[in-house]
Structures are given as C-alpha cells and as structure tokens.
# Entry
Amino acid sequence: MAFDLRLAKRFGDTRIDFALSAGEGATVLFGPSGAGKTSVLNMIAGVLRPDSGHVRVSGDTLFDADAGIDLPPERRRAGYVFQEARLFPHLRVRDNLRYGAPGGEADMAAIDFLGIAHLAERWPRTLSGGEARRVAIGRALLSAPAFLLLDEPLSSLDRARREEILAAIEHIRDVVRLPILMVTHDAGEAERIGTRIVAMA
# Structure
C-alpha cells in the first residue's frame, strides 16, 4: 500500500477527517480551495501535527498518535513541491539542486527528462515560472524521496508551461514510479495525472 492514511485535525470550528488507502501510482486530491487538501499534505509531511490517526507510506509508519510515533519532517523522506517554487534566491540552480541531494551532489543526468541541465548556472530570479517549477521538482527528486507530495504544481502557469510540468509528473508516475499524492482544483489535471481521484469538498 503506497498511502495508508487516517487523519483528524480541528481548526477552530472546522474539522478535517480524512482516510485513504491507495496503491502505487498517483493519487489526486481534487476539490475547491478551503477543502483541506494542503493541510492533508502538511500532515503527511510532518509540518502539521494531526490530532489523531496515522500516516503510513509504503509500509513505513511516519505518524501514529496511539503508538506515540511522530517522525520529524526530515526523517519522513517526502519530496514536497509547494505551490510556489521556493528556490533559494542566493543560490544558482545547480546549488539549489545540490541542497536537496544526499551528500550535496546533484546528478543532473538523473533528471534529464525535466530539461533543466542547461539552467544549472542560472539564478532563480532569471527563471520563468515553468523553469522554476521544474527545478523545484528536480530538487525534490534528488533528495532521494520515498514519495512525492505535489501541492497545486501547475498553479499560475500558462498552457505551454503547464504541459511541460504535466509531462514531467507523468514521467515520474510511469517511469520513475514513485508514489505521488497531488493536490489540484482542476478536473483536467486530476483526470490526466490521477491513477485514482479523491474528491474533497
């Protein structure tokens, strides 16, 4: 089982209750803003603590409220790509990629399919939105993750850049074969990427 999740979290008068059992491939959380999709990703990544429940990914328990297990984010091996690229502005692309890589070495050949090798000496401020997003995905992949969390990875991109990122995600799903949990509010994205689609309202 790629994702075995049971999560509960209260925010004031709002409560998230979420359960998922999903196999390999890409699971897409689909729904409107405010449905709690990003909060679910944050609980899986360990940056938000659930009130109760468990997080198991590929058989590893990352969080279990009853058992007292709560691994810190850096031990969860989640490759997390946020809505914004969140690249370090003072580091060139190569060094942004090295930051995520074990031992600080980025194997550019391993992510050639992202088409970012030629960007290695560029500064983040000189990148287009699509280029920055591809670098962010590359940094996540080079961190040797056990799974990927993608939070609206296509937001604010034009059609051409969206197509580039969609193709990259499909490659990760079908060729790299990492478990993926992706958030979107776009039905077309959900249908194209999702091995399964989970509606959140």
Observations:
- The mean pLDDT is 92.
